C-alpha cells in the first residue's frame, strides 16, 4: 500500500473527511445551531424579560429578572455552544467534543485586540482542534491525557495565531458595510438584502456570517428584509404545492428546504429574490429598520429576526409606531405579495409550472 493510500485509509478510519461540504455546510450548520442555542435564545430571553418587566406586579418583576439573567448567561457561553455544535457536526468523540467547548469559549473572547474574533474565530479554531483530536483519539493507552492535550493545544494555538487578525478583519468589514449602508441606503439596501437572502437559502449559515461581521443598524435591517423575503416569499409562492404545512415549515422554519427544487428549476428563486431587492431599500430608506448580528440573518425563523429588530430598535430608542408598521410590511406583507406577483408572471410565461416548488 502506498503512503498516500495509507494516509487516506487513516483519515477514513478516523472519519476525517476533508472537503468543502464538511466544513462549509456541515460544520457551518453546527455553528448555526450553537449560535441559536446561545446568542439567539439569549437575545430572545432578554427581550422578553425587558417587556415582562414593564408589567405591574411583583411576580412579573421576578420573572423578568430570571429571564434577563438566563439570557445573559446564554449569551456569555456563545463560543462554547458553537464549539459543541461544530464538533458534533464533525462527528467528534465525546472527549474531543468536550475539549472543543473550551476551545470555542476561548476563541470567541480571545482578548488579542480591542475586538473579539467572534464566531469566525471559533469556527476556524474548533475545526482544527476537532480534526486533530479525532486523529489521535483512542490511538494510545493514555487517551484520557493525549486527546485533550492535542485537541486543546492545537485549538488554542490556532486561536492565538488567527483570532487577532480575524477580529480586526471582521470589524473592518462590518464597519465598512454599516457605514456604506448609512451613506448609500438605497444601493446597499438592495445589495445586502439580496446577498444575505440568497445565503440564507443556500446550505450555509447567514446567521453565522452576519454575526461574524457584526452587521448592525440599518444594514442589519436590510439583511433581515432579505432573509424574510426568501422565507415568506417561498412560503407564499409554493402555497398551491405545499398548503399550510409549507407555509409553516418555510415561513417559520427555513427556505433552505427549497434547495433541491432550486437545483432542478433555478427560476423558482427569481420571485423571492426580486422581492428582496425591493424590501431591502424599503427597510433602509422608508422604515429605517435596525437589526444586529445573528438576528439579522435569521429572518422569520421562529420570529427571531423580528424579535431581534424589536430589541435593536428599543436599544437605539427608535421603536415607534412607524417601526412596528415597517416590521409587519417588510417582514411579512411585502415579501408575500411581491413574490406571489412575480411568481404569477413567471407562471404566465411558462417558466414556473405546477409542482416545481413541491417539498418532499
Describe this structure in words.
By secondary structure, the chain is mostly helical. It has 2 domains: 3-168, no CATH class; 184-348, no CATH class. The chain is 76% helix and 0% strand. It has 15 helices and no strands. It has helices at 3-13, 20-52, 58-76, 78-89, 94-108, 118-136, 143-183, 185-201, 206-213, 217-237, 239-251, 259-264, 270-286, 304-315, 321-348. Helix 2 (20-52) packs across helix 14 (304-315) and helix 8 packs across helix 13. It is globular and about 65 Å long. The N and C termini lie far apart (44 Å). The relative contact order is 0.10. The model has no long low-confidence stretch (mean pLDDT 90).
> How many individual domains?
2
- The low-pLDDT segments are none
Strand elements, count: 0
Distance, first to last CA: 44 Å
Tally of alpha and pi helices: 15
SSE string, helices as H and strands as E? HHHHHHHHHHHHHHH
Major sheet description: none
> Mind telling me the C-alpha Rg?
22 Å
Mean pLDDT figure = 90
**So what's the oligomer here?**
single chain
Q: Report helical residue fraction.
A: over 70%
Give the SSE map.
Layout: H1 3-13, H2 20-52, H3 58-76, H4 78-89, H5 94-108, H6 118-136, H7 143-183, H8 185-201, H9 206-213, H10 217-237, H11 239-251, H12 259-264, H13 270-286, H14 304-315, H15 321-348
Helix pairs in contact: 2-3, 2-4, 2-14, 4-5, 4-6, 5-6, 5-7, 6-7, 6-9, 7-8, 7-10, 8-10, 8-13, 10-11, 10-13, 10-14, 10-15, 13-15, 14-15
Amino acid at each position: 500500500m502506498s503512503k498516500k493510500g495509507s494516509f487516506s485509509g487513516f483519515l477514513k478510519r478516523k472519519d476525517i473527511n476533508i472537503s468543502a461540504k464538511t466544513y462549509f455546510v456541515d460544520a457551518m450548520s453546527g455553528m448555526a445551531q450553537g449560535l441559536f442555542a446561545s446568542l439567539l435564545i439569549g437575545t430572545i430571553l432578554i427581550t422578553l424579560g425587558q417587556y415582562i418587566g414593564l408589567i405591574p406586579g411583583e411576580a412579573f418583576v421576578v420573572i423578568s429578572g430570571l429571564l434577563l439573567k438566563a439570557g445573559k448567561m446564554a449569551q456569555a457561553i456563545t463560543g462554547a455552544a458553537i464549539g459543541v455544535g461544530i464538533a458534533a457536526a464533525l462527528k467528534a468523540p465525546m472527549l474531543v467534543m468536550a475539549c472543543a467547548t473550551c476551545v470555542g469559549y476561548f476563541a470567541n473572547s480571545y482578548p488579542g485586540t480591542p475586538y473579539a474574533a467572534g464566531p469566525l474565530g471559533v469556527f476556524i479554531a474548533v475545526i482544527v482542534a476537532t480534526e486533530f483530536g479525532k486523529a489521535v483519539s483512542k490511538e494510545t493507552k493514555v487517551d484520557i491525557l493525549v486527546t485533550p492535550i492535542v485537541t486543546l493545544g492545537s485549538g488554542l494555538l490556532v486561536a492565538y495565531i488567527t483570532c487577532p487578525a480575524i477580529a480586526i478583519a471582521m470589524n473592518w468589514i462590518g464597519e465598512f458595510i454599516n457605514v456604506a449602508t448609512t451613506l448609500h441606503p438605497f444601493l446597499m439596501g438592495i445589495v445586502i438584502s439580496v446577498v444575505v437572502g440568497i445565503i440564507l437559502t443556500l446550505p450555509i449559515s447567514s446567521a453565522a456570517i452576519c454575526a461574524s461581521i457584526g452587521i448592525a443598524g440599518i444594514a442589519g435591517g436590510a439583511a433581515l428584509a432579505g432573509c424574510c423575503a426568501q422565507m415568506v416569499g417561498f412560503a407564499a409562492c409554493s402555497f398551491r404545492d405545499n398548503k399550510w404545512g409549507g407555509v409553516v415549515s418555510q415561513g417559520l422554519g427555513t427556505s433552505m428546504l427549497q434547495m433541491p427544487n432550486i437545483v432542478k428549476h433555478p427560476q423558482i428563486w427569481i420571485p423571492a429574490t426580486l422581492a428582496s431587492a425591493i424590501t431591502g431599500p424599503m427597510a433602509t430608506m422608508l422604515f429605517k429598520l435596525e437589526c444586529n448580528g445573528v438576528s439579522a440573518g435569521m429572518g422569520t425563523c421562529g420570529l427571531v429576526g423580528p424579535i431581534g429588530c424589536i430589541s435593536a430598535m428599543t436599544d437605539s430608542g427608535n421603536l415607534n409606531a412607524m417601526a412596528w408598521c415597517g416590521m409587519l410590511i417588510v417582514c411579512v406583507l411585502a415579501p408575500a405579495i411581491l413574490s406571489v406577483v412575480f411568481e404569477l408572471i413567471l407562471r404566465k410565461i411558462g417558466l414556473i409550472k405546477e409542482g416545481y416548488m413541491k417539498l418532499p
